[in-house]
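Model the whole thing, not chain by chain.
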Amino acid sequence: MPGAAPTLTRKDFESDQDVRWCPGCGDYSILAQTQRIMPELGIPRENIVFISGIGCSSRFPYYMNTFGFHTIHGRAPTIASGVKIANPDLSVWVVTGDGDALSIGGNHFIHLMRRNFNINMLLFNNRIYGLTKGQYSPTSEQGKRTRSTPLGSLDTPFNPISLALASGATFVARSLDRDPNHLRTVIKQAFEHKGTSFIEIYQNCNVFNDKTFFAYTEKETKAENTVFLAHGEPLLFGRELDKGIRLNGFQPEVVDTTNGDYTRADLIVHDRYAENTTAANFLARMSDTPGMPHPVGIFRSVTHPCYEDLMTHQVAFAKERMGEGNLEALLNAGETWTVT
Amino acid sequence: MRKPIEQIEAATILFAGDSGDGSQTIGAQMTETTALVGNDVATLPDYPAEIRAPAGSLAGVSGFQLHFSSEQIHTPGDLCDVLVAMNPAALKVHLQKLKPGGILIINSDNFARRNLRLAGYEQDPLTDGSLTKYQVFPVDLTRLTRKALEHTELTIREIDRCKNFFALGMILWLYNRPMDYTMKWIKTKFATKPQYVESNILALRAGNIYCEATEQFATSYNVKPAEFSPGTYRNIEGNMATVLGLVAASHQSGLPLVYGSYPITPASDILHGLAQYRNFGVVTMQMEDEIAAVGVAIGAAFSGALGVTGSSGPGLALKSEAINLAMIAELPLVICNIQRAGPSTGMPTKTEQSDLLQMLYGRNGESPIPIVAPTRPYDCFDTVYEACRIAVKYRTPVIFLSDLYVAMGAEPWKIPRLSELPTIEPDFAKGFSQNGNDGDAFEPYLRDAETLARPWAKPGTSGLEHRIGGLEKSDVTGNVSYDAENHEKMVHLRAEKVARIAQDIPPTEVFGAESGELLLLGWGGTYGPIRTAVENCIADGASDVAHVHIRHLNPFPRDLGEVLARFKRVLVPELNSGQLRQLIRSTYLIDAIGLNKVQGQPFHVFEVEAKINELL
């Protein structure tokens, strides 16, 4: 039926491969939400490509019934860039983890962010190396005791949101493996954003780093420890939405909005479309600050030209200025002489 | 009275000076003019890694050697007939390359005590009698250029930068070459700076007139045009021929070219060259590192483009894991390695052939990858085109193993007709509703029975959704597999696929005797010195010597073993410690002899000749 878009369901995005993550892994939820949201994106399955590196998260492409490429450690952003530049019509997704993206692939991560290809990256952050069986990662808290750091890790962790913002990412978000609705919404908005979209997903590794994010994901504690970002709304959180975030000099601080000292007007109002990243940086740093809730949602969403579009324009411009490439003329360019 | 002109067969000229003196520029101009008047010509730039080493120092000497002839030639020449030394350091570094009785043109203005000391001369070689075996022409090049340009608006500093064209004017007179081509080039080069057009042309003319007018130069020389087979020719450098070969392969195959690279000597000119051709749809991406550069090429190949990356040895070391991914994923990919002297950073501006074993074996696991090597500057076109053909047909990464000597050298090139170029057929897998697909599940590792190539399935094609990766795959389905028997089978299939390419490449060409005493077996950029040495030995009466130069290093031509067996001895000259020799010994169980040089410099013809004479 030419012209009629087939209606796809979640099932259409499930491959015939058995999913082999540990029982209870947060990855299952992320996979399920991705498969559920895909039919809503309105693009044919054959135009979707999932690219990954190495690690537990990087098995993801095998389970998606789309085009997929499970590549090498840390390099997925480079391969995804090549896929996109060669065919800008494809919807390209990078699935990565905290080790893959921020340790071995740290260089490619920052350069992907600054180039602003229309590519979506899902970073499963579980603050641990799972596939190699439990060494600390670049997002592990300092002092982390693992098999490779029996006396505690010495490095200061990366904040993925801060790193993405500092690298010029145009869409930066955080979501949670255990909040399916939020995760689907954010994935969909990442898709709709034209430019590189980065989503850090708090993901539980129940084998090597169980409950590391439970304070932010579980019903009992989530409301007190997270603040959900909504554009144009003040930063409010707490079970009764009784706490707010205001800026005190250069420090965000938690204030009580019920005792009369502060009103909503005193609170930071979230502006995800702000070109200037200063406010987004304040929000990003909150998760490094003890006593502050972790922001969840879209930190930044601004529209900049995409790399592949700029390249397409350059090609068109060159053709306009120099004419469509003529190989015969190219080979015979410059000073030539003829022997008869 | 017109000065006498002497007819000669060939000449070799070496321009040398500080790296800022413009020796490369005038060398290239002399090459262009010489090619256009019909000589065969071959060149060798020799320059330091430092952009501007301290002025007058030995480290800062930059040289450009060119050899031109009325006969066919294959090398930039061993020893020189003319050395143009712009300062004492250039004289010190290059005097050993001047033939006894050769012409030595010296910028005497630069021979003040300070420059002599910088070059390590205790006494002035112009006056201490050490140059008596040469024809020495001290010329006050700086002073004369200043005089010629005194009426221009330029500063002294700007005027002094024109003195290379004064020297070129002299050489053009000495060899009876026209100045028109150079003038035309100057006009184009400085189109936006007319004051430099005027000054450089004035300097060029002044040098020319100086030779005509002074009694210093009594004779000039002429080298008649060489005989070339009919066709249209242009002068071309190896890296430029590589660029054109890649654009041609993209154009002829209909595959858009995506070139990922990170700047590195001596491969950067391929990036610079390709970046000019956006109007051919060529996408060049200067990536954040060598790994990213090969990564985009692999991604582009997955998307159905002609993915190419280029670098030199250190970059190839970084790319090796990604190349292995392309190997197991069986995607077309072309990797250009423009070899330089290693190990490690080594000598970035010097030539060597020492990456052969790295290219063949420098990856984890059993990783068969075809390797092709160009033999001379213009051959880069055909060889890189061949690399693209193999990559696309067999769905495999292919290494194009060039070297600095070939990449930076230049010579006349007979421009091919497009109809002569081999076809490259992408032959993408067909999706639903396309012919040949009845809706069965797509099997990404179902191989072609003849070539063993797997299908190339472009994303965007309905019905071909599939997943691949670096994990071992199951035969036919491509699903992840840890099965023992399957792994062994896949290792063998990948090896067999590459081995079968031998059926698809031309048989070995033997130059000289069909069988007999001695076969010289070479590869890559040593073609010129080996061929010339063998030609010379045959001309001197040796009837038992032959030369084979192989382009395909993996797999070898299928008849190579049989050819080698026809000779009592096999000599393998290489610019390494014996890498091809090791392969020949282990593959064919032949006691091959080595002629090895690891100095960052090409072979001299006489070195190869001496070894032949020793063995015959």
